[in-house]
Amino acid sequence: ILEPLRPGPKHWTERLDAKLFSEHRSEWPMSHDQIGDVIIVKVPNTLEKHSTAIGEAMLKQNTNARIVCADKGVKGQFRVRDLEVIASNQSDETITKVRESGHEFWVDPGAAYYSPRLANERLATVDCAKELSLSLGRKISVCDPYAGVGPALVPLSNTEAVDEIYASDLNPEATKLLKRNLPGHWVECRDAISLCKELPECCDLLLVNLPHDSVGHLPKLLGLLRKGHEVVIRGWAIIPLDSLTDVRKRINEILSESKLISLELDANRSYSPNDTYACFEAHIIRN
What we know:
Layout: H1 18-23, E1 33-35, E2 38-41, H2 51-61, E3 67-75, E4 80-88, E5 96-100, E6 103-107, H3 119-136, E7 140-144, H4 153-157, E8 162-169, H5 172-181, E9 186-189, H6 195-198, E10 205-209, H7 214-217, E11 230-240, H8 244-254, E12 259-270, E13 275-285
Parallel strand pairs: 2-3, 7-8, 7-10, 8-9, 10-11
Antiparallel strand pairs: 1-2, 3-4, 5-6, 11-13, 12-13
C-alpha cells in the first residue's frame, strides 16, 4: 500500500527545531530576497549564532537556491552589500545569472548593486527607446554612465530600436560583469562626469540612474546628447516629497539652453516615509 503524500513545510522556519523556533518566535526573519540562485536574508544580532541553521533550512525549503547569505549592511566606496555566506550546497561565489522580463544576465549582489524591484522601470525604458526610434525614423544610440551590471541595457540591446550602446560604471567589479552582459558594445570603467570629453554627442537616449545625485550630475552629462533633433533623458532620483516642485524647477533650469519638448516627473514609488523614488523623462532638442 502506497503511503499518502504529505505536503512539505510551507515556510522555511518549519524546518527549524521546534523548541529553538518557539524560543525566538518573534525574531526570526520572515522575508528574504532571492537573486538568481542566491538568497539574501537579514539575520538579527540575537540570532547570529543560529545563522547556519537558518541558512540550511532556507536551502532545504528553496530547492532552486545554491547559497544563502546574511546581509550585514553596505560597505565600501560603492556601497555594495556586505554578504556573509551562511550555507551553500555548491560554491560560495555570489555571482549568479538572473532572468528578468525574458532576458538573462549576470549579477553579483556582493560586488555590484542590482535591484529586481526596478524591472518595470526597465521595461518602460525599452518602450521609451522604441518610441524615440519611431519618432526619428531610425535606430537610436543609448548611453548609460551609471550602468552597474547593465540590467537596463540588456533588454535594450535585444530590441531592434537600438543600435549603439555606450555603457560605463565607476565600480570595476560591476564593469567586469557589464562587459560580460553586453558583448560587442562600448563598455568601460569610467567616471561619468568626465565622460563627455571621451564620448561627445554620442547618444539619442541618456539614462541617468544615480538616485541620490542624478539631478546634480545632470549638467555635466548633457554633452553626451546629440544636437539638432529630439533626444531623451530618462533619469531616477530620490526626492523629498515636499521638494518635488523645486526639483522640477531645477531640471527646467538645467535644460534651459535647449528646446524643451516635454518634462515628466513621476513620483509614485515610495522610498521612505518622507522621500519618493521618482522617474523624470525629458524630451529636448539641443541647440
